[in-house]
Design a protein that fits this description.
Elements lengths: L2 E6 L3 H13 L3 E6 L8 H4 L11 H9 L4 E4 L10 H7 L2 E4 L5 E2 L12 E3 H8 L16 E5 L3 H11 L2 H4 L6 H8 L5 E5 L11 H7 L5 E5 L17 H19 L7 E6 L2 E8 L3 E12 L2 E12 L2 E4 L3 E2 L21 E3 L2 E3 L2 H4 L7 H16 L10 H11 L7 H14 L12 H17 L1
Parallel strand pairs: 1-2, 1-4, 2-3, 4-17, 6-14, 7-8, 7-14, 8-10, 9-10
Antiparallel strand pairs: 5-15, 11-12, 12-13, 16-17
The protein binds NADP nicotinamide-adenine-dinucleotide phosphate (NAP).
């Protein structure tokens, strides 16, 4: 009997692991189990809708999904449909690739006011993720604040400011396209609690902000240190080079005029949010000026306020505990030894190491765990578990409708067909719509 492996989660971490397993394991059967009918996790629901080139990695993942030894089961939720313990009873190895789907919470006073959103929810909303299409943020505001200096903050600010023409080739769902392009937002403030040298956004994203049709970047020269050394930052060679490149771009922005374009993105450093202002709904943000001491932001006791009707906290993501698996509440990960969690249980991606790195950072997680599985189930191993057949029997006995990769390809084809040129795709935004569309596709084939 081949070694049976279940991977929970079909984002980059799950797919890179499947790919590494296929390459390292002579006799493996790999089942990728996903909560939504649609695969690819953050590639579909997190990567910005105007970053279509980044989404092309799904073509590589598709090659893995179509291999004989790999099967995909979408629309199956662990905890709701099947427990983790049941999967561990059915499979020799279970790999958790469930990511970090929740927002790190902003805990300042007023953070519960209407108009304050976490970036996981906000990004999910403009990406047509079924969990967030009811968010309906009020964008009828003149100014928005984005808290955080990471790439997600950069994505949110850019999506709010990019012109309709600049977004035309994106796969923004219609409701988000309408809301964003009718919004009177002319100013977006990006607040970093530390300085430009400590900012986590990458240079490509920073430069992209300087090339928007309708938006000027606004940077105050007095906030820019003369060099990375002058900022006193203790960085690795690589990070120093990256920070130097960012400083150079920010310096160039600080010398540009902001009058020629109707909208502005304000890069404000050394500014830690302390209170969301307003009644029920956000009307402004109060911040404290900071200085960076030994790499940490320290308040200076000087405060200032800005008016804004929308706040998006892009301060990082958090994983959630899973019944049947240990959980480190403080680090918000599953405690593991480089991916090993327990006998036959492994973790990869953000649930293993926290929400950091780029898509390809998940590749090495997959390789490490594939090696563990290769070593743990060597040639002499005789599997006594039912694996795929037992799993399918369980789904059938519970009346659970799973979505195969072939089904996903039908959904994919309909989304591509429903798009209005030059947008590449019109996403289905509820699970019900996806399943109904699949039923329609099957019926029309039967009656043809
Ligand atoms: P991130 O890179 O960790 O950035 C989080 C930001 O929030 C940091 O600037 C952090 O400041 C700030 N922050 C945290 N807590 C705060 C608080 N209480 N008050 C004020 N600011 C606070 O996280 P992310 O932007 O969510 O991105 C997650 C990962 O996805 C990153 O590795 C990112 O590079 C990746 N990603 C990549 C792309 C891309 O390649 N285009 C796009 C999106 C996401 P401190 O630094 O001071 O802690």
């Amino acid at each position: 009997m081949p070694v049976s492996i279940a991977i929970i989660g079909s984002g980059p971490a799950g797919f890179y692991t499947a790919d590494a397993l296929v390459k390292s394991c002579e006799s493996c059967r790999i089942d990728i189990i996903e909560r939504l009918p649609t695969p690819f996790g953050l590639i579909r629901g997190g990567v910005a809708p105007d970053h279509q080139t980044t989404k092309r990695i799904t073509q590589k993942f598709e090659k893995t999904a179509l291999l004989d030894e790999v099967s995909y089961y979408g629309n199956v939720e662990i905890g709701r449909d099947v427990t983790l313990q049941e999967l561990r009873n059915l499979y020799d190895a279970v790999v958790l690739a469930v990511g970090a789907p929740n927002d790190r919470k902003l805990t300042i006073p007023g953070a519960d006011k209407l108009g304050v959103h976490g970036s996981a929810a906000f990004v999910g909303w403009y990406n047509g993720h079924p969990d967030f299409q009811d968010l309906k943020p009020n964008l009828d505001v003149g100014a928005a604040a984005v808290i955080g200096n990471g790439n997600v903050a950069m994505d949110v600010a850019r999506v709010l400011l990019r012109s309709a023409q600049g977004m035309a080739k994106s796969d923004l769902p219609d409701y988000a396209r309408q809301a964003i392009h009718h919004a009177p937002i002319n100013d977006v403030y990006m607040f970093g609690r530390r300085g430009p040298v400590e900012a986590k956004f990458t240079n490509v994203e920073l430069r992209e902000m300087g090339n928007l049709n309708e938006t000027s970047p606004v940077v105050r020269a007095e906030q820019l240190p003369d060099s990375v050394e002058a900022a006193g930052a203790n960085l690795s060679d690589r990070n120093r080079r990256l920070a130097e490149r960012n400083l150079k771009v920010l310096r160039e922005y600080s010398e540009r005029g902001s009058k020629s374009k109707p909208k502005r993105v304000h890069f404000e450093f050394y500014a830690a949010p302390v209170e969301i202002l307003g009644g029920n709904r956000v009307e402004g943000l109060r911040l404290e000026r900071t200085r960076v001491v030994s790499g940490r932001a320290e308040g200076t006791g000087e405060f200032f306020e800005i008016d804004c009707g929308l706040v998006v906290a892009a301060i990082g993501y958090r994983s959630e505990p899973m019944d049947g698996a240990p959980y480190d509440e403080k680090r918000a990960i599953i405690p593991n030894d480089d991916g090993r969690v327990d006998d036959g249980l492994y973790a990869v991606g953000w649930i293993k190491r926290g929400p950091s790195g780029v898509i390809s950072s998940n590749r090495s997680d997959g390789v490490v765990v594939a090696k563990f599985i290769h070593d743990d189930f060597d040639a002499s191993f005789e599997s006594s578990k039912t694996g795929r057949s037992g799993f399918e029997e369980l789904l059938h006995s519970r009346g659970i409708r799973s979505v195969s990769y072939a089904d996903w390809k039908k959904i994919d084809a309909m989304e591509l067909k429903n798009a209005t040129d030059p947008s590449p795709r019109q996403k289905f935004i509820t699970v019900e719509d996806m399943l109904e569309a699949l039923d329609g596709a099957c019926n029309s084939k039967e009656s043809a």
